[in-house]
Every structure is written in structure tokens, then in C-alpha cells.
């Protein structure tokens, strides 16, 4: 028998009043909406806990078995005993698994203030019963219909008596006793079984179709004989013209007492689909992590001089997303993921100019200076916490508008919780185990059945469309692989450390035999960041089930039998210093697995250079100016062209600089064709000078200018000679430069002083921008300090509201403040100062808010009373004119 059974609270407020502080803290932690603002007393807390919005939010966070328990209570008598509830959950035959899990589910419902009362009088809060109880408009998930009493509420007394008589019961003097007799018959298993044994076969077939719901059916004005037999005995009751319903008592008899067709007391196991060597998993994930860094860098280089324009409604246009996908050589959904990831990490933002464009932020330059492993941690942590959902890009919103990357409407508050939970389930498997996707989705649906099954508020569910939570889980699995948190579907060591998870269970090769994994993540500082949920119970009060794992194997795709090992059922998301420590540990594990940047390339005679691996940043930046990337992969191929060499010369490099650079960084001799290319472009570079006339061309060789004037391709430039060595054009210098280069010349720009301009790449940056804030999924969970203060205030307010006091004049209605005259108030307070007694006062503050308090007056002077306020637990001063009245506390 539970402790609640020994007391008999008359209301939810009394049940809460009997709780200790730790139990109240658990309630406020599981239902944070109850603490904002802090209730004045336990009566207000109970009232708030029974509001529809709060109850619906609490029901959404129940797992399937706890929700099934609440649904069973909604169709049980009010109040119901524990044995009645157990019968509804386990059926007449009983179920030891259900019987073992039911106390924990009931504890969850009590802890969240959805159920109160002892085991002999269990009560579901009224709002929850209204939500979960069956009705014609809102059928119950149990498939049960109304009771006999509810179904006959509008039936004539004569018809009720006819049903009672036909059912073989004696007639009664009133409808109430007749309905009670019919209910007693339908709840008596043996008597009802004898009655059903007399039913025609067709009638029993009708009942079998209605028994598991929906319990409603249609009949004609002249029903068939077998339907008439059921109607005459009340086994089917009319609810509207042409509509009948199977009474709840009859359905429960046919179901052998079970409220649900399938009861799910235990969460479905996450089944491994394949297993790989932990070393292979970590190496694969590290390779993908490096690719993620390279992809984000390439994206930002594309937008370095100013990215795509911002749409009027916000976000990228479809055309710009396609261009970005082509530049990154990925599909459009994957391009949307990388763009959103960079945005979530604060690396790109709108520049805020009149011609608004996306650009890298100053934080991007700081990010580039960090070691690769730390840069990856920043991306991964930003992804874990982001509420923006790239998978929605290309879909439609509630107004049938296309959702664009970086645009509004992509935030889904459930995304961080789903990502963390999916990765936590992966962390519960053995090292190297890749889960079966459907088993992960089944587990998530069990843990949040209402959230998984309801309509998405923003989009609306279409027939055959998966719910949002399921889609978020699928996107999590694919995005984690893209980002390098997982490798071959299994959680990597660095991903495990980033979550603050304990080391994976190894069966087969030990950690020492898998050098690719590095040291155990639990051995370093990341172990201090591990925050596992209580191993005894999960978030919903259920015992932490041992997540399934499987032995590690050397080859991918090996199907192996499931075995169990002990892991925490839930991992709490890290925050603050713990998150920093976990990130440092993840970076430490990842760093040795990333390839070392190279300081050399291999030059080839076909005017290409091969980078056999990642290059150090100065070398990569310079080579990116001097040559064009021709292909990527394990090795990057760069091609030298006249245009690329001219680009390097425009950036201020000389031919000698380029020769020295290639000689220093090439493991092979500089090929003669490349040397000739550089010298030839440099020889012609700057021979022509372009300035502003609007624009002009000057050259010491007037024959070359004559050649340009005679060229038909120069007609569009409208050149005219100003002097033997100067040509002018009515166009801007940039257009003139491009036109001459298109004709095969290599002009150089010059300043107003006649100096050659160095055309360095202009890195366009947005003003400093903060990363987008995640959209919270409801009120934040209160921390320990707020919980302590809130409980203290609630207890003090409850003391003021419930402390016995002596009567003052007329009896006061519940919650009404005491009323005394000013003279009586002053005299009572002065007397309390002399005697040291405590008083109950009504007080109205400057904002007009009324409250009741228990005070111990210390001093009265100048129209103010200074007293120790038991409600606030501190010394306070109150103006006497704001005290509505006083009352002495009862001596007991």
C-alpha cells in the first residue's frame, strides 16, 4: 500500500499539501508551466495544475503506458480503487508484467498531479477526465463508449423499464433504480455471460465488431431481428436517431475486463541492425567530420565577397539554393542543411544593408583560427541546440507558402529534444552498434505517443504523412551522419563524449584493441560532464530498461543476436560549464583522428597540381588564388590557367613571388610549361593601364593601341584616342578591364596617381551578429535555486491561507480578506507588539494586488508597522492604510 493510501485528501490541494518539498520540486520540474508565475499558495497551485492547457501539456509528456493508465482511470468509476485500475489494465486473466509496471506508472501520474488520492480512492483530475473520457465527439483511445447511466440519460422511463423487463430483471419504481439494476447485471460476469449465451449468432457477430471500437453503429428505423434482440435487452442503446452504442460495461465484459486491446507496459527495445568495429566507426565519423568542416569553409568562401540576396520575406531563393548546391556538389536538401548549420553556429547572417545580402560574420574569422576539432565541436553543439529544422525546406506552411532556407517558419521547438533523445538511444547500444531505424522510431512513439500522434500545429497532417516527431528523428539520423557524430550509423566516441554519455559497453574487441577510438571518453575530463538520468526510473517514472546491444564485429552489416547490458535510460542535455567540458573531451578524442594538414603539393606537366590531402591554411589560400579547383575527393586537383595566374598578379604577387612559392611548396620540380605560363602572363600583365576618364587606356606602345582600335570586338567599348598613347571610353574601369581581358589582353588597373592597383579579394562581413536563439519548447525547466525559492514562497503563502484564526465579525468566505476598521487595525497591531503574538492580515500593494499574510509585529510608528513576515520569511514594513483588516491567530 502506498503512503497516499493512508490519508484521505478531499481535494488535489490537500493532496499537494501532504507532500514534502522534494515531491513538490519534482512536480514543478516536470511541469514547469506551474511555476511561472510562482503560485501564492498550494490552492492556487492545484487550480493551475487543473487548467486545460497545463493538463494537455502534461499528458503530452507521458509515455504510452502512463497514458494508457490515465485513459483507464478516465473510463473507471470516480473514484476508483487500485484493484479496479489493475483489472482494467491487466484484464481478468491478469498480466504479471502489467502488474509490475503499474505502480510506477501510477507514481508518475501522482507525481505530475494528474492523479490524487489513496489506493482505495484514486481520482483523475477533472480536466484530464474530460479530455480522455469517451464522448461521441471525441472517442476514447480505449475504444469504449458511454456507461449505461450516461447512454440512458435521455431515455424515457417507460422504455427503460421495458429493457429491464426484457433483460430478465424485475421492474422497478423509478428510472434510477432501473438503470442501477441494468448496470449491476452488465457488471456481473456470470449473469451477463448467461444472457449473451442466449443471443443469436448474428447478434454476437455485431457485438464483436463493436467491442474494440468505435462503439457506435448505424441502424435503420426497422432493425433486423438480431439487432432488435440486442436493443430490447439494452446490449445496444440508442444515442441519436439511427445511431446505437455498445455500453461500456458490456464492452468490458467482452474484452475480459481490459480497457485497451494492447497494453504496452515496457518500452520497445532499440534493436541493432548491424555492428562494426569501434575503430572503423570512429575513423568513418572523423572523416565525415573533416568533410563537414571543409564543406562549411567552402560555403563561406563562396559567400566571402557577399552571398545571395535576402528575399523580401526572408531566406534564400530557390535559385540561390540550387546554385549553392551546385557549388558544394551536393543535393539541395543537403545544401540547405549546411547553410542552416552555418547560420545556427553564427557564422553567416544578413548584412543589414539596403541591398540586403547574406555574408559571413566576424565570428567566422575567429572560428577559422581555432583547431579543426574545436571548430567541429562548435558546429555539432550548435546543431544539437538549434530549433531550426532544415528538413522542412521546400515544404509548405499553413498558408501554403514555400518554406525557404534561412527563412521564417523553420523553427520547431521539439527538434533539440528529439535530436538528443535519438542520440541517447544510440548511446545505449554497444560500441559500434548501428540501430534499426524503425526500432528507434517505435521507441520514440512509445515515449511520446500524444506528440507523435497529434496533428502538427503548423503544417497539418496529410493522409499517409509521418508526424513531425518521426520526421525529426529520421532527419536526426541522417544529419548526425553528415556531421560526423555517427559513423556507419553507430555513435562515435567523440559523439558519445559530446553528449556527456558514459563509455560504451564493449563485447568483443576491447578498447585497447581499437586504436582508432583513442582513450575511453569516460577516462578524461568528459567523464565529469556525464549526467545520466536516474538509473532506477526514466523521465516518466518507469524503470530504466537495459538498452539492447550486441557484440562488436569486424565486418559491417553483420546481423547479430541482441543481448543486454546496463546503461542509463536517459541522458540529460548538458548546459553551461558541463557542456564546455564535454566539448573539450570530444575535441580531444577527435583531434588524433583528423588528417594532418600538408605543406606541399605535387606539380604536374599538364598545368595541374595535386594536393594529396588537406593543405595548411596559408598554402590553401594562396593556391586557391593562383589556380582553380578542378576536382575534389581524397586528393584535390588544381589547374593553372592564364586567368588564374592573372588573378594572382592582380592580388599583388609578382612572377618571382609565384616561382618562389611553387618551388617552396612542390615536392616535384616546377614543370617548364607552368613556368612559361607564369612568365608569359606576367610579361603582358600591366602593359595596358586602365583608369577613370570615365575610363581610359594608356600604353607606351601606340601600335598596340592601334591594334585595339582596329579590333571589331572593341566596338562595344566605344574607345577613342585622346593622345598617341591614351584611349578613352565612356564606361567604368571595371567594365573596360573585363572587355579587354575578354579580347585576350592583360590590362592592369591603376590609381589616380598612376600606380598599379592591387585587386585583393574583398572579404565582405556582416556586422557582429549573435547566433539565432532556439525557440523554447514551453517554459524552461526551473533550476534548483528557483525551485527552492518557489517552494518556500508557496509554503509560506499556504501557511498564511490556512493558519487557524479567531473569528472577526461576520464569518469570511473562502479566500476573502479580513475587514476591520482603521482604529481596530491599529489597536490590534499595537497589542501584538506588546504580546509578541502573530497576526493574519489582508494587504493590498501599490499595484492593487491583494494578498493575505501572517506577520509578527515588531514596531508601530508613523503610520507604518514593521513586522517579521512569515510568508516572505523576512522583516518588512507595511503602511497601515494598505492593511484591509487583521485577525488574531487561533491559540492551537
From TrEMBL:
Highest rank taxon of the organism: Bacteria
Domain Helicase XPB/Ssl2 N-terminal: 601-723
Region (Disordered): 133-154, 498-563
Domain WYL: 824-886
Comp. bias intervals (Low complexity): 498-518
A Pfam short name: WYL
MF annotations from Gene Ontology: helicase activity
Name listed for the protein in its UniProt record: Helicase-associated domain-containing protein
